[in-house]
Specification:
Layout (H helix, E strand, L loop, with lengths): L5 E5 L9 H15 L3 E7 L17 E5 L12 H13 L7 H15 L5 E7 L3 H13 L3 E5 L15 H17 L2 E4 L2 H10 L8 E3 L19 E6 L9 H13 L5 E6 L4 H9 L6 E4 L4 H10 L2 E5 L11 H8 L3 E4 L5 H9 L2 E4 L4 H13 L6 H4 L4 H13 L3 H5 L15
Parallel strand pairs: 1-2, 1-4, 2-3, 4-5, 5-6, 6-7, 8-9, 8-11, 9-10, 11-12, 12-13
Helix pairs in contact: 1-14, 3-4, 7-12
Length: 425
């Protein structure tokens, strides 16, 4: 019987952090351990979050926390500090403000690896410092490297206001070195995979894989009320080019035809002042309630009680599917997506049967979609979304790991001689 190799995962965010970046490998690490891997995670120190910590996230494997030697942006006020932070933002734009963490993470990982048999390095981004650290670690250890992209780095046509041409060019050069070193790349959506393949044609297509985020199946302990107010729920903040005004207009129009059951939107997360003003100017305040963010366990009950769950994608992030989509799938309620025509969310909702996606400015299309979801025949989505269970996605990841060759197939027992790396930095 082959022994599973060591997995050294570089994930800047990790449980119990509630940030999206913590969730993917908090769950995948648990599944890898179930499959017999010795899992070690190199993560940032636990910092204070305005949203608290998420105790529902699994913590499996050995977690090694490391602080950055220099935390950017610099804390505190003062003219000189503001100038320094502005300079750091410009200088570090190609690699991210967490760049200095990469050096500390590399040293920590190499010290940890002295006690471990050889294995595989998986580095997940953003922040990009995790990939920089992962590449350094894999190169020093001579272990295979998997780059795991939750968001693209340079392989996406970012708008000029988001990333200037020089920053984009330099980021592509830095990322290109890491891609050439990597043995495999895992992308989060098909759209992201297409952008990556176009941007890095030198990376063998056989080493590119698409594995989305996922969810754990959950018992349905709450259901939406059959009478009274109909509630649409949105989890998270509205920012960037996103707006709820077209949806609220559609709710108002639909309500004119279904007066017996008023329709209302509840969002758990702040609205920017400009969006609040747009809603007031349109006279739509009575159709929305803004509530503060709440712990996930409490939020999940609200998701299960909702009639429809809402996700909104910005026009400059069409490659992405919000992580909340998978929480919505776990809740088992139909999903309404508002996204540009070319957004990955259209394909995901259509293929999974979990909901419907329409363009965010098409008020008539939004109204028609809501009418079908709220007043049409009830459809079951659970059978179509099982492929997004973390247990299933971990099996897909095993395919990636097994594609790497001898280390993954034969296990660490035959490679003990390489287990004492040079840890000089």
């Amino acid at each position: 019987m082959n022994v599973r190799p060591t997995l050294l995962i570089v994930s800047y965010h990790f449980a119990p952090s509630p940030l999206v970046g913590a969730k993917r490998f908090s769950f995948l690490a648990r599944e890898f351990a179930r499959h017999g891997f010795d899992v070690h995670i190199i993560a940032n120190a636990i910092n204070e979050s305005p949203h608290g910590n998420d105790g529902s996230l699994p913590v499996v494997g050995t977690v090694h926390r490391v602080d950055a030697p220099l935390e950017v942006p610099l804390k505190g006020g003062g003219f000189l500090r503001r100038i320094a932070n502005a300079l750091f933002r410009r200088l570090l734009a190609p690699v991210g403000m967490e760049y200095f963490w990469a050096r500390a993470a590399t040293r920590k990982a190499l010290a940890v690896a002295r006690q471990l048999p050889p294995g595989i390095v998986i580095a997940t981004s953003p922040p990009h410092a995790a990939m920089i650290a992962g590449a350094r670690i894999a190169r020093r250890l001579k272990w295979p490297l998997i780059l795991d992209y939750r968001d693209p780095w340079s392989a996406y046509d970012w708008p000029q206001w988001h990333r200037g041409w020089f920053t984009q060019w330099l980021a592509a050069r830095i990322e290109g070195r890491l891609v050439r070193q990597s043995s495999a790349r895992v992308l989060n959506t098909p759209s992201m995979s297409e952008w990556f393949a176009e941007s890095f044609p030198q990376a063998p297509a056989t080493g590119n894989f698409t594995i989305p985020n996922g969810f754990d199946p959950a018992p349905h302990t709450a259901t939406p009320p059959a009478t009274g107010k109909i509630e649409i729920v949105h989890a998270g903040e509205i920012y960037g080019s996103r707006s709820l005004v077209p949806l609220l207009r559609a709710i108002r129009e639909l309500g004119q035809r279904h007066r017996a059951r008023p329709i209302h939107l509840t969002t758990y997360g702040a609205l920017p002042s400009a969006e609040s003003q747009r809603i007031r100017e349109a006279g739509l305040e009575s159709f929305i309630e803004v509530r503060p963010r709440i712990p996930f366990a409490s939020l999940f009950a609200q998701l299960q009680r909702a009639h429809v769950l809402l996700a909104v994608v910005s026009d400059h992030m069409s490659y992405s599917t919000p992580y909340k989509i998978y929480d919505y799938m776990a809740a088992g309620r139909p999903i309404l997506g508002l996204a540009p025509r070319d957004a990955a969310l259209h394909e995901l909702l259509a293929e999974s049967g979990a909901g419907v996606c329409v363009e965010p400015q098409e008020i008539d299309a939004i109204e028609q979609a809501l009418e079908r979801m709220l007043f049409g025949p009830v459809t079951q989505t659970a059978a179509h979304t099982r492929r997004f269970h973390w247990a299933h996605l971990a099996h897909q990841y095993l395919t990636v790991i097994d594609s790497l060759g001898d280390v993954a197939r034969t296990g660490p027992q035959e490679h003990v001689a390489a287990s004492s790396p040079d840890i000089r930095d």
